[in-house]
Amino acid sequence: MSAPGEVPARARHHLLGLSPHGWLVAGLALLVAGLFAVSVALGYAPLDWPRALADLFAGRDSIPALVLVELRLPRAILAATVGFSLGLTGAAMQGLMRNPLADPGVVGVSGAAAFGAVVAFYFGLSAAFSLALPIGGLIGAAIATALLLALARRGTGTATLVLAGVAINSLTGALTALALNLAPSPYAALEVVFWLMGSLSDRSLVHVALSLPFMLSGWALVLATGRAMDALTLGEDTAASLGFSMPRVRLLVVGGTAAAVGASVAVSGAIGFVGLVVPHVMRPLVRHRPGRLLLVSGLAGAALTLGADIAVRLIPTRPELKLGVVTALIGAPFFFAMLRHLKVEGE
């Protein structure tokens, strides 16, 4: 209870026109903006910022302006958008399946997208057709999600869906290994292996232009399911009785996940655990409401990926650590800790 004359905490939040959820979204957005600025400012060589900005706005193709536009900005933009895609779709998949272990990687979507992109690499399509990588990733992700949907429509339980995802991951991993085994040269195989580790180095505005339309489309589809996600916590039958069409909700989530994750994997390679870790960290902050979890998980995913990419450049190793390696080093211990926590709760 508030002391006499003291304004209650909830009322203080609304005095500034923001609810606690609004403050959380605003704080995460500011964090992403700050990390974005650090990512753009960080590089292996000092950058003459005043000259770069002056040349950029004047339309002069000087070296500082080119470094800013062709190297620093694309890397920061992709780190933010890929992280947002992974965090958002991770929260959506967990809400749809009502399973805290679900994420685009665990259910096989990321692995299938990676295999689709590897096929584009293997057959030389990526060199002949600039859209081959994102389209390959999208097709791979769409096939995996279609398989999961076919199982879901038969009334399959969530544990079986997760196991089906593990099977998809194993199959796509085996097919990727087969492609490496049959690679025409060791250099081609090495290129695929490095790409699979996940990285945002040496990306350009072309990669941003190729992937961003698919990511934006995926975000719009997934974010449109916020109210349905809240209703799903009461069960599919109750959600349907409240007027939500479950086939449409599944289509929006799966289609949005395929578009966002497929495009993300196509330009960055496999970056795991972001979609699994971030929703778990954010869930208590939104009072376990799946609908509100979507946006905050996207923003937190963007912040985590930007932070990991900054760490990659600050760690003094040569060659540079791969981004997927860093996120796995963060996510794997968290995953084990979460499994231990769930086991304790079950006991």
What secondary-structure arrangement, pairings included, does this model have?
Layout: H1 9-15, H2 20-41, H3 49-58, H4 63-97, H5 109-122, H6 125-128, H7 132-153, H8 158-181, H9 186-196, H10 205-223, H11 226-232, H12 236-241, H13 246-268, H14 274-282, H15 290-314, H16 323-346
Number of strands: 0
What's the Cα radius of gyration?
21 Å
Determine the structural class based on helices, strands and strand pairing: mainly alpha
Beta-strand percent range: under 5%
Amount of helix: over 70%
Helix and strand run: HHHHHHHHHHHHHHHH
Question: How many strands, what sense, and barrel or not for the largest sheet?
Answer: none
Compute the number of helices: 16
Poorly predicted runs: none
First and last CA, distance? 36 Å
Outline? globular
Structure write-up:
The protein is 76% helix and 0% strand. By secondary structure, it is an all-alpha fold. The model has no long low-confidence stretch (mean pLDDT 82).
In short:
The protein has 347 residues and is an all-alpha fold.
Kindly list the characteristics that best describe this protein.
mainly alpha, single chain, 347 residues, globular
